[in-house]
Amino acid sequence: MSNTQAQFDKAVEIVGKLPPDGPAKPTTEDQLKFYAHFKQAKNGDCTGAAPGMFDFKGKAKYNAWKELEGMSKEDAMSIYVVLLRDMLKKFDDDEASKKFLAELEGASQKQWNSSMKAADGTQAAGQ
Length: 127
Hints:
The protein is an all-alpha fold. It has helices at 3-17, 28-43, 56-66, 73-89, 95-126.
């Protein structure tokens, strides 16, 4: 698993755990960005017909995802992580936000450590 994938997976988990009444609450614009980058990371470019003209929420989500057309899945994952990190840093006086930020950073460090151990094992086996 790549470092980007590990951070993305942790970021998705954190976004799902954000308390709806907590201080670190994504704005509607943030929610659309998270949605669009999640969909681009998981599914690639937006396909299918646009929602009907009276489906305002569906249309907003569709348009947000459609704007990312051509973006790689890895770039979408990276941006998703940055969006969450930036949002959490705005609430650095909130303990829950600090905890989530530490978890996000920890996912990166944990994956890096695993990669280094695997590389050391590969080098040792090749010697």
